[in-house]
């Protein structure tokens, strides 16, 4: 499908989704968020897909936030709808059936950082700048930043970033635990693809179950998470992938997982 604010490319069982509004540093407007929802729905149904990478078009930005020119004249009712749209879209990323890697290739600000925080793993290039500058515009983060950032890096560190609106570089973001890895700018996408390929060679049902268990487990208590893990683990023993994975190990060969 053709999109205006997005580009979707496939390489085998990996998809690369680029936010494609480089003239405005890939700022997210309503139309792009709606397109993103459509693309995520379509990709979720692709039987071949195993990992999704999200990045930004151009050299300068991953996503420099929600589109300020669109937000500037919103009233409270329109803002409510826009924030709901943002949350709904980011939840689709968080609940996407396969792992989602954010390849942060420049500015990841406001809604851009919030989108990355909804991904499973964040890789950043050395030139990345990350932050939640909403308070500098007289608003608070509205696409999940006040919720996902403290869960990831702790309350006090998140509050410092949110209250100051300060941007941090990739190295500081790594120290804070926001990004998994910092890459040379020219190698970011290759590293993201290599990571994606590594994940994609594992048992697909097991990877999918692991994502759900981590996500759901973090929302509930430890005992509830343990119970979910036991059940999911046992269920994997009725898959062909488990038989194949263990048989291949014992036969000293590479497994051929079919996702069944
Ligand atoms: N919404 C709409 N347009 C945006 C944008 C956003 N979030 N971020 C950047 N743009 C536009 C700029 O208005 C500019 O458009 P123009 O060429 O028509 O003037 C273009 O993208 C390039 O940005 P510019 O500001 O000229 O680049 P810069 O290198 O000087 O600065 C940033 C880069 C990211 C520091 C700066 O663009 C910025 O602060 N953006 C807003 C970040 C923000 O507050 N995001 C949170 C929104 S809730």
List keywords for this structure.
260 residues, alpha/beta, 2-enoyl-CoA Hydratase, Chain A, domain 1, Lyase 2-enoyl-coa Hydratase, Chain  A, domain 2, 2 domains, four-stranded mixed sheet, 10 strands, binds coenzyme A
Describe it.
The protein is globular. The protein has a six-stranded mixed beta sheet, sandwiched between helices. It has a four-stranded mixed beta sheet with strand order 4-6-8-9. The two termini are 28 Å apart. The chain has 260 residues and is an alpha/beta fold. β2 (14-19), α1 and β3 (51-56) form a beta-alpha-beta unit. The chain has helices at residues 30-44, 68-71, 76-94, 111-118, 145-153, 155-164, 170-176, 188-200, 204-219, 222-236, 240-250; strands at residues 6-11, 14-19, 51-56, 61-63, 100-104, 107-109, 121-125, 129-131, 167-169, 181-183. The chain folds into two domains: 6-200, 2-enoyl-CoA Hydratase, Chain A, domain 1, CATH 3.90.226.10; 204-250, Orthogonal Bundle (Lyase 2-enoyl-coa Hydratase, Chain  A, domain 2). 49% of the residues lie in helices and 17% in strands. The protein is built from eleven helices and ten strands. Coenzyme A (COA) is lined by residues 24-25, 27, 64-69, 107, 109-111, 133-134, 137. Coenzyme A binds at residues 24-25, 27, 64-69, 107, 109-111, 133-134, 137.
